[in-house]
């Protein structure tokens, strides 16, 4: 398949730069587990509402400081709003529904099918080709993630948890389709994510009032909530938006398997988890898979260097 000058692959340096920017979301998401453990007994939907509210405040602050019309960023086509709310709120809604109705290990691993789905679905994007090494790299990352999540054990899927398993699968499908479909709106500025964060905060607040009992963060727990809103729930979604719109979506998908690995390493360093052969094996599978999936990027870099 030939690629015209309008294809993202025709602008390799810019695409690599956007991929690196989008990849920083993976680093930020890897801090999610540690920060969440510091938020105490704050209910999940309340935590989502607070952290996304902070993410919206970041965007609002930027617009005010640079004297940008707020309405200009909020005035987006209905399709943009629907996709953003579908991705940001939809993923978190089904994720917590999954955790309520299935064991956390099972739910987490099923939900983490989304990087593999991103790689597969990228074949439908204009100018992109799905090759065997992309799929092989994604599968390697999934196996490594499976080792981390199950701690070397196995899944014992049971019929009474079908609702939770279905919600977990919905998570994977939602985030993968959101990330891939986002390329269709490459002309929409990343500032639009600010409005989506605000809408997600509002919808999460409604879910909290319906499903949860309010327990506010206390003392230093507020610092963790603020850190969540700035990092893995704030900046992460802005850079991911830029990466999925302008970067290599397949490489972003595969590299996302590094998040649970880095998260585990952070927990080990923080003394909240132990370093084992499982972590080492998972690291080889995830890093090796990412390297395999980036063969075309490495080849392109080699040609430019030559």
How helical, in percent, are the residues? over 70%
Distance between the termini: 24 Å
The secondary-structure class comes to mainly alpha
Largest sheet report? none
Oligomer: single chain
The coarse silhouette is globular
Number of strands: 0
SSE pattern = HHHHHHHHHHHHHHH
Which stretches of 5+ consecutive residues score pLDDT under 50? 1-10
Q: What is the helix tally? A: 15
Mean pLDDT metric: 86
Radius of gyration computed on alpha carbons? 19 Å
Beta fraction of the residues? under 5%
What is the fold's blueprint, element by element?
Elements: H1 12-29, H2 32-37, H3 44-65, H4 70-74, H5 78-101, H6 104-111, H7 114-121, H8 132-150, H9 162-181, H10 192-211, H11 221-246, H12 249-255, H13 258-269, H14 277-293, H15 295-305
3D structure, described in words:
With 306 residues, the chain is mainly alpha-helical. Helices cover 73% and strands 0% of the residues. The chain contains 15 helices and no strands. It has helices at residues 12-29, 32-37, 44-65, 70-74, 78-101, 104-111, 114-121, 132-150, 162-181, 192-211, 221-246, 249-255, 258-269, 277-293, 295-305. The model is unreliable at 1-10 (pLDDT under 50).
